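Lab channel / #folding
Pinned by the channel admin:
"Please post every new chain as: sequence first, then the structure tokens as a reply. Keep commentary short and put observations after the output so the thread stays searchable."

First post following the new format, from NK:
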Amino acid sequence: METQTLIDSKTEQIKKEVLADIISGIVPTTVNSFSELHDYVDANCYGSFCEDEYFEFLIQNFGGRDENEGMPQGMLDFMNQVQDNIDSWLKTR
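Reply from TO:
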């Protein structure tokens, strides 16, 4: 899957997850940044980022672990872009 398509898809998924948490009262309606989400949930886990199977898929999709067994830079860039998108959305919704 093309990276931008993956970014767009993951951004939409996380928006839905955040809205579900707002509706259920886990996250207040006043949250207006990605970092503020961390006051209520582990925001890094939105979008299945904390699920082992999806995490491994991303590692492989972005070229495998680096020489230090860390995440590939492309994966980090992807995750950061998605989180930046959510941050911008929260600030403007």
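NK: Residues 20 and 26 are 9 Å apart (CA to CA).
TO: also worth noting, The chain has one domain: 3-92.
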